[in-house]
Structure formats: structure tokens, C-alpha cells
Design goal:
Shape: globular
Number of strands: 22
Helix content: 25-40%
Largest sheet: 7 strands, mixed
Strand order of the largest sheet: 16-17-15-14-20-21-22
Number of helices: 16
Distance between the termini: 56 Å
Radius of gyration: 22 Å
């Protein structure tokens, strides 16, 4: 069997696949986040223990030889480890907001835009550049003690295999990697005031590093490949490799990815270019803050359980009887396809006759408009795959297809773990039929009349958003 390991933010999963790509079994463990005053941290020992636990469970449930394993996980953040790969302090998550004031200064003085023009990465508070600079100013002893600033999957790979500390081009893409040379841009390191901390940046293994397991969770000697991280792994698992094709991950946050062979470092700084294992091929990524968390807030506020969502969506007409939602509920504002830290959600058109169904449908439509904005900014002009928790709602998927005005190829199962296996197979020269492994579980077609209705609604959304962005600026 083939094993994919996906170390997420709130959950660790391991999935077993047979040679045709059929998912045999999945094991999962939840992870905790420590939140206080804008700090969002994770216990590395807890994360690693969860990885070992899911692997032990999976190999018990499917007692077959493991041909190879692929590893992926959450990106960004800072995972400081010592020379033995042990944690120096808790990991700072990609969700962390402690560096927002520092990033604000960089946005004001032009550093933010300069970095984007060099690397194609629009920094946000939880990305490594701002976090490392914050630690250098406020917690320098942690950096003095650390040997390397890794990413999540890199910490796990080091512990599972004992291999030297390293990362891959996908994780390194934000914000230090030059996407043309596939090496760190030392001028960016200098711009962020981190030249004296340059030694902390993990060596880039290109292509991704491989090693044998030491015997924790997986049999000793099991071949493992380290990466790519979860966004590009999901793209591989959904079959998104041809230029112009895209993937929309409908989760707590939206992530829009479009495969491309062209670099365009002009335009409004937002998102990033994720380097892939194939030189000259990137994913133009717009990882937004808006997503199913917006719907969860509305459901919690209105007291509507998730099981009633499909029925309410089906019973409420397109346009939600005039209710409109700009779904930017994140306390950190938005980061793609634009950066607006002070942007907040807005509800309009609500009156005493508005129903819970109107609020819920308007929120789903608003999320769809935000997704369309991200996909257009990322350059989508081919086929579109979708994955993530939101795909479990068939009614919402029909609504999303109508709002986006295009067919949706639904990628089911553990898409990130599947992509990690395909990346590992490529690295080890194992022939797997990628077309069979990434065949969609369904294709959702848009309704032409509703698609035309939503095309007009999208233009209205953009106009309301422009006004809201103006109000959000100091």
C-alpha cells in the first residue's frame, strides 16, 4: 500500500491507498491550538505524537507492506528546532497575528511591495518573514538557541527519518525564495532585517528530500518523501498540473490555485507564486481568509445546525431576496486577492421580513463571489477542481457552480494525502497512473440562467467591495 500523511492545523490524517488510487483507510487525530492575545501556537511534540499515532493505527488496520509514504502539511508559520530537530519553543502558526504591526510598517514604507516584486509573495502576519523579524525583536533568545526555522512537514520529516534539516521549494516560496532561481533571495533577507539570522533558513532540497523511516509509526526503512506542503499537494491530488487549470479548496479559508508557466510580478501585491517540483511551473495561489468559517459564524449566530443548510439553500431563491453579505469575517481582514487588514464583513438589505435562509444563502453567495474574485486574479482559464469540507454539501456545490459560472470537478477523499503520495512516487520513480488517481468523484454543471444572474451579482459584489475597502483604510 501507499501512505499519505497530511499534518493539518487542526487535524493530522494518514490515508492508505492501493495501487489504483483507491482509498483503503484513513486515521485521524485532532490537534490543539493555543490562542492568546493574537498569538496562535502549537505544541510540536503533540503534533509529532499525533503523526506517529495515526500511522500506527493505519498500519494496524491495513496490515500490508508500505511501498512508500508521502508527507505534506500546513504551510507558513515558524517551527524553531535545535540541532537534533527538537523544539526550541512552541511553533508559531500561520494563523498567528503578533507581527501585524510590523507588517503594517512594511506596507507603509514600501518593503512589502518590494518583496512581492522580487519573489511574488505578499507577506501576511503568519508568514515566516514577519514572524522571524518579530522574534528577532522581542524574543531573540529563541532564535539564538535554534538551529533551523523549519515548516511543519519538515519538522515531522526530520523526526521520522533523522535526515538533516531541510525544506522544499514549495514551503520556501513565502517570502524568501526567488521563483526564477529557486534559491533564497538574500536581498529580501536583508530588507526584512534578518541578514544576521540567515543561518536559520532551512536548506532547500530541490527536488524534495527523501529518506527511510527510523521505525516510529512506519516500519524502519520505509521510503518517505518530504513535501510539497498542503496547497500544492492538494493540487497534485486533484490532478491540477496543466497551465490554466485551477483548484478551489473550500475549507475554513478559501484557497484558489492556478497552474502556470508564466511569472507576473506586477499588479496589486497579493497571494504568492508557489514553486513546484517542475522548474518553470508554478501555482499562482490566492489563499484567502474568507471561507466556511464565515458560514459557521452565521449558523452559530442564527442557531441553525449544519444539517439544515442544504434545505434552507434549496428553499431560498438566488439573490436571497435582496440580502447581501461581504463575507470578510476574519479579525485579520483579508490577504487575497488583495491585502486589507482592516476589512470587515458587511450585511446589507436585511429587514424584518428577512429569514434565516436569506442570511445563509447570501453568505454562501458572498463566499462564492470571493472565490470567483480569487480565481480570476489567479488567472483561471481552464478546468476547475474543488475539494475540502464544503464539497460535502451538494446543494452548496450547485450554488457555487452557478456563482462561478463553470463546471466543478469534485475531488473527494483525502486529496492532500493523495497528492503527497503522487509526489513521492515521482521522486522515487514509481509508476502510478495519475489520471486514475485523480479522477473526480462528480462533476457539477452550472445552470445557464442562474449563472447569468450571478454574473451580474458578481459585478455588484466587486462594486460594494471597493467601497468597503475605501472605508477600511485609515
Amino acid at each position: 500500500m501507499y501512505v499519505g500523511i497530511d499534518v493539518g492545523t487542526s487535524m493530522v490524517k494518514a490515508a492508505a491507498f492501493d495501487g489504483t488510487g483507491r482509498e483503503r483507510a484513513v486515521a485521524a487525530r485532532p490537534l490543539r491550538l493555543a490562542l492568546r492575545g493574537g498569538f496562535v501556537e502549537q505544541d510540536m511534540e503533540e503534533v509529532y505524537a499525533a503523526v506517529v499515532a495515526v500511522l500506527e493505527e493505519l498500519t494496524r488496520r491495513v496490515p500490508e507492506p508500505v511501498e512508500l509514504a508521502g508527507l505534506t502539511g500546513q504551510g507558513d508559520g515558524v517551527w524553531l528546532v535545535d540541532a537534533e530537530g527538537r523544539p526550541v519553543r512552541p511553533a508559531a502558526s500561520w494563523m498567528d497575528g503578533r507581527a501585524h504591526e510590523l507588517l503594517g510598517r512594511w506596507m507603509a514604507d514600501g518593503t512589502f511591495e518590494t518583496v512581492f516584486r522580487r519573489t511574488g509573495g505578499a507577506m501576511f502576519p503568519g508568514s515566516p518573514g514577519p514572524l522571524l523579524a518579530w522574534f528577532d525583536r522581542h524574543e531573540p533568545k529563541s532564535l539564538d538557541t535554534a538551529a533551523t526555522a523549519l515548516y511543519c512537514k519538515d519538522m515531522v520529516f526530520r523526526r521520522l527519518t533523522g535526515a538533516p534539516a531541510a525544506t522544499d521549494v514549495s514551503d520556501a516560496s513565502m517570502p524568501f525564495l526567488d521563483p526564477r532561481t529557486r534559491a533564497y533571495d538574500d536581498r529580501v533577507v536583508e530588507l526584512l532585517g534578518l541578514a544576521h539570522r540567515r543561518r536559520l533558513l532551512a536548506p532547500v532540497s530541490d527536488p524534495v528530500a527523501t529518506a527511510g523511516a527510523r521505525g516510529e509509526g512506519l516500519p524502519a526503512g520505509t521510503p518517505i518523501a518530504n513535501g510539497p506542503y498542503d496547497l500544492p499537494a492538494c493540487a497534485l491530488g486533484a490532478g491540477v498540473t496543466a497551465p490554466g487549470d485551477g483548484l478551489l479548496i473550500v475549507g475554513t479559508c478559501l484557497a484558489a490555485l492556478v497552474a502556470t508557466t508564466e511569472l507576473d510580478l506586477g499588479g496589486e501585491p497579493a497571494g504568492l507564486y508557489i514553486s513546484t517540483d517542475r522548474p518553470g511551473h508554478w501555482l499562482r495561489a490566492m489563499p484567502a481568509m474568507v471561507g466556511t468559517a464565515a458560514l459557521d459564524w452565521v449558523l452559530s449566530t442564527t442557531g441553525v445546525p449544519h444539517r439544515e443548510v442544504d434545505g434552507l439553500l434549496a428553499d431560498t431563491p438566488p439573490g436571497a431576496r435582496g440580502v447581501r453579505v461581504l463575507p470578510y469575517f476574519a479579525p485579520s481582514g483579508e490577504r487575497a486577492p488583495f491585502v486589507e487588514p482592516r476589512l470587515r464583513a458587511e450585511l446589507t438589505g436585511v429587514c424584518l421580513e428577512s429569514t434565516k435562509g436569506d442570511l445563509i444563502r447570501a453568505t454562501c453567495e458572498g463566499i462564492g463571489y470571493a472565490a470567483r474574485h480569487c480565481l480570476e486574479a489567479a488567472g483561471l482559464d481552464g478546468a476547475l477542481a474543488v475539494c475540502g469540507g464544503g464539497t460535502r454539501s451538494p446543494v452548496w456545490m450547485r450554488l457555487l457552480a452557478d456563482v462561478l459560472g463553470r463546471p466543478l470537478r469534485v475531488a473527494g477523499g483525502e486529496v492532500g494525502a493523495r497528492g503527497a503520495v503522487l509526489a513521492a512516487a515521482e521522486r522515487y520513480g514509481v509508476a502510478l497512473d495519475a489520471r486514475a488517481w485523480t479522477r473526480p468523484t462528480a462533476v457539477v454543471e452550472p445552470d445557464p440562467d442562474r449563472a447569468a444572474f450571478y454574473a451580474k451579482g458578481y459585478e455588484e459584489h466587486l462594486a460594494r467591495l471597493a467601497q468597503a475597502r475605501d472605508r477600511a483604510r485609515p
